Amino acid sequence: MLIAIFTLLAGFVVLIGGGELLVRGAVRVAERAGMSELLIGLTIVGFGTSAPELVASVEAARAGSPGIAWGNVVGSNLANSLLILGTASLILPMVVPRGPLWRDGGLAMLATITLWFVASTSGITVAIGSGFLLLLCLYLGYAYWAERTQPVGASALHEKAESLEVTDTHLHDEQPLWRSVLTLIGGIVLIVAGGRWLVEGAVDLARLVGLSEAVIGLTVIAIGTSLPELVTSVIAAYKGASAVALGNVLGSNIFNLLLIGGVTAVIAPGTIPGEITNYGLPLLIATSVLLMIFAATGRRITRWEGAILLIIYIAQLVYNVVAV
């Protein structure tokens, strides 16, 4: 068991470190290529911060462990919506801009309902995955067009959150292009290696402790791969940028569902384990509705509402381990 735990932890560390290097190198190369900050935020930063979840799910799908792959997708969004928003709201009550909430939060809810419906009926197909990826491309195109005039959507806030996180690390200092390219390549190598170790350790641990792969994906892996978003949102809340924390979560949820879910479906079509179809996805839909209610009542998520989100997350973790 110690070997499985060590492999799992090593995978987390290498995966998160690789994702950080990937974002730093990619942003620097994109800047040198003349890309705008908004376009960088919409594409490279959004993809980079979702890289840990993407690699973990793809490696799990390729290894024949769909429970880990889909558990990571659903569990990461639960962690984003309950753990991260709850923690950020406790630090600073979160003002909720109506536009980003209904556009970006609504899209994430629609994708979740669609995923639950097809998983409960016909199963996940390559066509469904391709549709998710196409929808992501359409969303990015629309968001880029819309936010050129009013940059308040999730993707713009997601990019601002990244800038808050790396402000003290001198990301934008002048450095040779070759060093940025090496940083980018090094990040890719690390996330691939970390993803493999993470999945190997998780599968071994699930077998040793008697938990299903789906539960491991919903809990341990989901929390670990959500660490970049957690750090970003907590820093944003401490700096008084609560809307940035919200945008970071909404943007991450969309990338998790459409990008990671789409790629996973294309690589490994088939059925989603019952723990996710019957429990994880319905809980994620209910959580999305609850967030809409919280936001609609006062256009903010208060500290006591954040505490409710955290309590729900802790309760579902206990339920996952004990009952699922």
What is shown here, in short?
This protein is mostly helical and 324 residues long. The protein is 83% helix and 1% strand. A two-stranded antiparallel ribbon has the order 1-2.
Average pLDDT rating: 79
- CA(first)-CA(last) distance: 22 Å
How many helical elements? 12
Output the helix-strand order.
Answer: HHHEHHHHHHHHEH
In percent, how much strand structure appears in the residues?
A: under 5%
Number of distinct beta strands: 2
Q: Based on CA inertia axes, which overall geometry fits?
A: globular
Q: Helix/strand/pairing class, anyone?
A: mainly alpha
Biggest sheet statistics: 2 strands, antiparallel
Which helices and strands, and how do they pair?
Elements: H1 2-32, H2 37-62, H3 66-91, E1 94-95, H4 98-120, H5 126-147, H6 154-166, H7 177-209, H8 213-225, H9 227-238, H10 242-267, H11 274-298, E2 300-301, H12 303-322
Antiparallel strand pairs: 1-2
Textual characterization of the structure:
Strands 1-2 form a two-stranded antiparallel sheet. The longest helix has 33 residues, at 177-209. Mean pLDDT is 79; it is low at 164-172. With 324 residues, the protein is mainly α. It is built from twelve helices and two strands. The radius of gyration is 18 Å and the shape is globular.
